[in-house]
Design a protein that fits this description.
It is a single chain. This protein is of the alpha/beta class. The chain has 16 helices and eleven strands. Strands 1, 2, 3, 4, 5, 6, 7, 10 and 11 form a nine-stranded mixed β-sheet that branches. Strands 8-9 form a two-stranded antiparallel sheet. Strand 10, helix 14 and strand 11 form a beta-alpha-beta unit. Helix 4 packs across helix 5 and helix 9 runs antiparallel to helix 11. The longest helix is centred in the first third of the chain and has 20 residues.
Length: about 400
């Protein structure tokens, strides 16, 4: 009992000293809101649906059917834009900044019907028709499963719900990888996409750098020992520590610099006053097996299905000794891309190789100073990419 009391006193004393030295910044109301609450907080209407994949995963998707000026859209069939988040993120990443700098809100205010999806295993997508989300079986999925099941189920649902034959697709990092995999292997699905917009695009990740590269070279056995065999990078108590530390006047810059170890160096483009919101929304989690799948891509430099580790196991799963590749050239959808010169995850060398293999590339903007996060939450994201996406859609509609 005395030990417990002494510990409490020490925590209180040192916590008080810390707070006196590092003045806390004002807390943002959205820091611990969910997606529906964020949308409502900013005065927008929303709809929420559940998509069930062929293999039983239940994926929530969110719709902002119109901008704040609802009357200007009455009676109009609004163009549909679907937003697919990146690795370990959720649909909330498209809403992490105020409306004038979050792509989800910008598109809605531009007159579009905005849909935002969630990949299996993130904070919002941990339900299944019959698997327990605490079981290893629930978490036994790789990128190949998201490509084969999640994206087709989500896009089919949106097309059927809106009655539109084609929609516009925005895929950030993993969202671009899913697009190249799904749309190249599934021509019927690709026909439902009018244009694809890919910020921080990847297919191969051979040259990925930063802290994530070190993790991917741990090997399968050590990765499972360290992280287990279920989820990884999920929201946890650590986020509260990050929110507490990073919401200090003096510590915000330090937290910003720590992020550069993961995503690339561009600290001037991050709004440090919203670090509590970012920490509250990300990371949102995924399976350990998706990490192993990325690690395979870093080691091999090949965009392919998951390697089971032996010719016999690959033969069992794929009826061939090696994992089948995804052929980017088979995706014929008109594609626009935005890439960063300081992006650790979508490295410029990987992007250059990707660019050479895209069959219908209509635009590629290379931004020398941008890192990975800049394409979704950066201070210059609207000027560098978001407004251009709106312009591309409007131009396509008028043609």
């Amino acid at each position: 009992m005395w030990c417990l009391l002494r510990t409490i006193c020490l925590v209180y004393i040192f916590g008080s000293i810390f707070c006196l030295i590092f003045e806390p910044l004002p807390r943002n109301p959205e820091a611990n809101m969910n997606i529906n609450e964020i949308i409502s907080y900013w005065g927008y209407e929303y709809e929420e649906y559940e998509v069930v994949t062929e293999d039983g995963y239940i994926l929530p998707i969110y719709r902002i059917p119109h901008g704040k000026n609802k009357s200007s859209h009455l009676g109009k069939l609004r163009p549909v834009v679907y937003l697919q988040h990146g690795w370990t993120l959720s649909a909330s990443i498209w809403l992490a900044n105020p409306p004038n700098s979050s792509l989800g809100f910008i598109l809605a205010d531009a007159g579009f019907d905005v849909w935002m999806g969630n990949s299996r295993g993130n904070t919002y997508a941990r339900k299944h028709m019959y698997l327990d989300p605490h079981s290893k079986k629930f978490w036994a999925f790789r990128l190949s499963h998201i490509i084969k099941y999640d994206l087709p189920a989500t896009i089919d649902f949106i097309v059927n719900k809106t009655g539109q034959r084609q929609i516009y697709y925005v895929g950030y990092f993993q969202g671009s990888l899913l697009a190249f995999g799904a749309f190249s292997a599934n021509p019927q699905l690709a026909q439902k996409i009018k244009l694809s917009f890919l910020p921080a695009p990847v297919a191969t990740v051979k040259y990925a750098s930063g802290a994530i590269r070190a993790i991917t070279f741990l090997g399968t056995t050590l990765t499972k020992i360290l992280f287990g065999e279920k989820d990884i990078f999920s929201s946890s108590d650590a986020k509260y520590f990050v929110e507490f530390l990073c919401q200090r006047e003096t510590a915000g810059a330090a937290c910003n610099n720590i992020l550069t170890l993961l995503y690339g160096y561009d600290p001037k483009n991050l709004n440090e006053s919203r670090l509590d919101v970012y920490a509250g929304q990300a990371p949102a989690g995924t399976s350990v097996q998706t990490l192993l799948h990325y690690a395979q891509g870093v080691r091999t430099g090949v965009f392919q299905a998951y390697d089971w580790g032996s010719p016999s196991l690959n033969m069992l799963h794929y009826n061939q000794r090696t994992p089948p590749p995804y052929n980017v050239k088979d995706m014929k959808i008109p594609t626009a891309m935005w890439s960063g010169g300081k992006d650790f995850l979508a490295d410029p060398i990987d992007v250059r190789h990707l660019e050479a293999n895209i069959s219908n590339l209509i635009y590629h903007k290379k931004i020398a100073d941008c890192n990975h996060l800049d394409f979704v939450i950066g201070l210059n994201a609207r000027n560098e990419a978001f407004d251009e996406i709106v312009a591309f859609i409007n131009e396509d509609l008028s043609s």
